[in-house]
Amino acid sequence: MSPEAEADLARLLIALLEGAQVLCRAAGDREPFERAARAVLAAVPV
């Protein structure tokens, strides 16, 4: 993966987690974060 692609992926992951945090606070539940984590694990090759 190129350095530019790595930086783009890092920004995407940060935005995803920040959005999940907002949804968790609004819902008063951790489920949005759990969904985001599952989506990341499914989408990003490890």
TrEMBL record:
Residues 2-38 form the Transcriptional regulator LmrA/YxaF-like C-terminal domain. Pfam families: TetR_C_13_2. This is Transcriptional regulator LmrA/YxaF-like C-terminal domain-containing protein.
